[in-house]
């Protein structure tokens, strides 16, 4: 599926991040996006940040193996069983990343008002140096990275339809990432973040 010669390694200290802009053909990615919008039982949980509780600014769903739950920001999600389409994608990513992903967290950004604030994927269930494979479908959105210590944004990347971003090694120890809001009138975006729950 992927054009391997298009992979790009991000030049950031204490990070191991690879971007594959052409992982999935745009027409296939768009069809998959529409399928997921219609078929996934999306949920919107309340999230507590700095003592204030409000609806999470995006919709989510969790699929996984072995019934292992995933918890973040006071939210605990119980996984649904992988669908055939998600399992096929998981198997392909397993080979590419040379690991065995157990879980996929889906985020549905309905428009530019939906977002995901600064965070690291460093929950204890993910282990010491987690590997995260994130497939983007639908509208392009900016992905920002900043150093945990300096809090300065060091990299901004436009994630295109059908792209794949892989973060591994010590990345989550030293870097935070976010999908910021945008005032632009844009369509929906889904990202599928595959991970290993220990």
Q: Report the total helices.
A: 3
* Number of DSSP-assigned strands: 15
Q: Fraction of residues in helices? A: 10-25%
User: Structural class given helices, strands, pairing?
Assistant: alpha+beta
Name the poorly predicted regions: none
Dominant shape? globular
Radius of gyration: 16 Å
Provide the β-strand percentage band. Answer: 35-45%
Largest sheet: 7 strands, antiparallel
Written account of the structure:
The chain has 198 residues and is α+β, with helices and mostly antiparallel strands. It has 3 helices and 15 strands. The longest helix is centred in the N-terminal third of the chain and has 14 residues, at 26-39.
Summary?
The chain is of the alpha+beta class. It has helices spanning 26-39, 84-97, 171-174, and strands at 8-9, 16-20, 46-49, 52-55, 59-64, 70-72, 75-77, 103-109, 116-119, 132-138, 141-147, 153-159, 164-168, 175-179, 189-195.
What key attributes describe this structure?
198 residues; alpha+beta; 7-stranded antiparallel beta sheet; 4-stranded antiparallel beta sheet; 15 strands; globular
List the helices and strands and how they pair.
Layout: E1 8-9, E2 16-20, H1 26-39, E3 46-49, E4 52-55, E5 59-64, E6 70-72, E7 75-77, H2 84-97, E8 103-109, E9 116-119, E10 132-138, E11 141-147, E12 153-159, E13 164-168, H3 171-174, E14 175-179, E15 189-195
Antiparallel strand pairs: 1-2, 2-13, 3-4, 5-8, 6-7, 8-15, 9-14, 10-13, 10-15, 11-12, 11-14
């Amino acid at each position: 599926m992927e054009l391997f010669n298009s992979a790009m390694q991000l030049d950031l200290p204490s990070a191991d991040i690879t971007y594959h802009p052409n992982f999935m053909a745009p027409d296939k990615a768009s069809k998959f996006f529409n399928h997921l919008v219609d078929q996934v039982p999306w949920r919107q949980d309340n999230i507590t940040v700095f003592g204030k509780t409000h609806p999470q600014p995006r919709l989510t769903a969790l699929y996984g193996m072995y019934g292992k739950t995933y918890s973040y920001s006071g939210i605990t999600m119980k996984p649904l069983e992988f669908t055939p389409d998600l399992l096929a994608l998981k198997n392909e990513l397993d080979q590419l990343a040379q690991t065995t992903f157990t879980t996929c967290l889906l985020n549905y950004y309905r428009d530019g008002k939906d977002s995901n604030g600064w965070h690291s994927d460093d929950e204890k269930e993910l282990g010491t140096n987690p590997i995260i494979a994130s497939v983007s479908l639908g509208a392009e959105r900016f992905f920002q990275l900043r150093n945990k210590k300096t809090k300065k944004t060091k990299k901004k990347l436009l994630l295109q339809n059908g792209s794949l971003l892989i973060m591994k090694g010590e990345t989550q120890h030293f870097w935070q990432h976010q999908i910021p809001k945008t005032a632009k009138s844009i369509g929906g975006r889904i990202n599928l973040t595959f991970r290993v729950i220990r």
